[in-house]
Write a structure and sequence with these properties.
Elements lengths: L1 H21 L4 H11 L1 H4 L23 H10 L13 H12 L4
């Protein structure tokens, strides 16, 4: 009985930690994906080149919940193409995390 309790403490401590850390976005990967797929229209520092394109340096279009932003990126929105099948939802969350760092 004591042997089973010995393993219970590490498991109860590590499982929540693993759950929280496994869902974190990677802004470094987000930057790579952004530079490859997004910077042409949204600019290297998030400042859009064309009228009507969200300016991420001002935080435009970033106040929506992540679920909505991922859906918008996955399905396309207006002039923005769909990234369904090209980028995973994890990569899309990474991009969202990265572009939020561009706000001034």
């Amino acid at each position: 009985m004591t042997y089973n309790r010995f393993w219970l403490l590490p498991v109860t401590v590590l499982l929540p930690w693993m759950w929280v850390t496994s869902d974190a976005s990677d802004i470094f990967n987000g930057r790579e994906v952004y530079e490859m797929h997004c910077q042409t229209c949204h600019g290297m520092d998030g400042q859009a080149f064309e009228p009507g394109v969200p300016d991420f340096s001002r935080g435009e279009s970033l106040y929506s919940p992540d679920v909505e932003l991922v859906r918008s990126l996955r399905d396309g929105d207006g002039h923005m193409p769909s990234y369904r099948g090209l980028l995973s939802d994890e990569e899309l969350r990474d991009v969202i995390a990265y572009i939020r760092t561009l706000q001034r």
